[in-house]
């Protein structure tokens, strides 16, 4: 199984627990499991928390505290329902089956063991299926239903053989179980074949527990062959092992089997010794079936010893009645368990059908080439996510387009183009949280929806990583050629998908317009602006109508701040606005000289030195235009009392020189054409500022 511990210390503690378990050091297991739990909770390692609880439950089980074991098991399953911890999920289901079997709740036991088996089939990487199969066999074996026991023992063994896992000491007991089942079914020839296999391949790995288990099977076979010479030394060894046995219930059962053999062969001395040992142990054994079996054997032994006694007939009738009752109870139990197995099989089949239907539905939603949502499915899932989200968090819809993708296909071929698409999808989906939704909305166009996050820095870092990763894409000879453009729409409200899509697409257009290989942000308007989606243009002016006048004002051979104020004044009049600003960065980008004009005040113009917010300035990398049409302070640029502004970075020769900003109470009504005016003005100002203020 693959371990996913966050800390090396956690892994070391688990290894210590396993070592203590191998040495039956229960207290050591308990100490290390509690230490692991404290450490895992401190570092918030869910995988290690599940591991700690599992081994703590194992300690309780080994101490016979079944209620505490089951309580911890349920806690682990609750964790597994919320987090992906398949290793301890399946082991916990398996343990619950064992615990319920120990307290004689066989229906619950078979239910959990089958759940463990079906779960393991869905996680073949765990290579665990043979464990619950073997435990189901052991359950039937303990109930003296050997045909069912053999069925599951053989299935477990065959599954393990297919895995081609090297034989270890843990593999001896399952083979002994198969031998025992064949003996119970009186198939002694098959039992001897498996015993030969055991001696050849498994005996070298034999543990002390396995040695006792195989000894009792040899006793049964010697009894069948009436080979007392080989049988009696093994009986002596079995009786003398009493003090070193940890699993008292199991040892008690083996002694019962040996006693039954001795009674049938009339080995009175050995029968007496075994009976004395069993009566001494009976107070430690809480299994009702085992104690009933002992009572029946005592009666059987008395009948053998005193066949002419006056009470013989009464004892015989009692014994016969008891045996008949046991057989009836065994038959009823067998039938109940078979019904439960069939129910679990039907439930699992039904669950698999539902999973397959869900898988088919998902496949219909997926783009067949990229494996992410197609356009229709993306819209549906985003619409649902928007309705469910919290208004205290941000959401962002990203539109992504591969720059000049047609040229990639034309130059490098469609195979390279296909690889580029897959690589872009890979970078857009890698490392995302589970609630992030990705979709293909066009041939080389994609969308990603982040339904909830608190920090814009988180989003901008993700977007920057997307841009950087795209530039590293290598498909055939495309190294360094592939770039992407990204449009971002931010919101805190539940909105109609089509409007969100439109805004994100507008932002993508801005990123493309400014030269590609960058991102642009368009922020959602405030709640007060209910008509923000209006397509009616507020302004009739266009850049082409007043650009000639701007060029007349600006002369790169004669830089003057008054000329910049004149440009701002001209633009404000043309656009029917009142406030604007040009910020000119110093060469270290630490401060800016802000030229501000407000046509509502006197004097209209002012100049101030402002310290740059480098954190905000970094957010402008690879994008040049930001629109803020809300009171949302999270779109950080400059602190201002104005409710709405539009801002563009002034860039020349890839060097940021400053920013130009327009303030407008009705920015929500700007259409796409007006949005380009600002970026055009920034382009016109760039060479003037570069050659003027930086000379």
UniProtKB/TrEMBL annotation:
Highest taxon listed in the record's lineage: Bacteria
InterPro entries, A to Z: Diguanylate_Cyclase, GAF-like_dom_sf, GGDEF_dom, Nucleotide_cyclase, Rev_trsase/Diguanyl_cyclase, TPR-like_helical_dom_sf
A Pfam family the protein falls into: GGDEF
Keyword presence, Transmembrane helix: yes
CDD domains in UniProt: GGDEF
Stretches assigned to the GGDEF domain: 393-524
Signal peptide location: none
UniProt record, GO biological process: cell adhesion involved in single-species biofilm formation; negative regulation of bacterial-type flagellum-dependent cell motility
Alphabetic keyword roster: Membrane, Transmembrane, Transmembrane helix
Transmembrane residue ranges: 98-119
GO molecular function ontology, one term from the record: diguanylate cyclase activity
PANTHER family hit by this protein: DIGUANYLATE CYCLASE DGCM-RELATED, REGULATORY COMPONENTS OF SENSORY TRANSDUCTION SYSTEM
Protein name, UniProt field: Diguanylate cyclase (GGDEF)-like protein
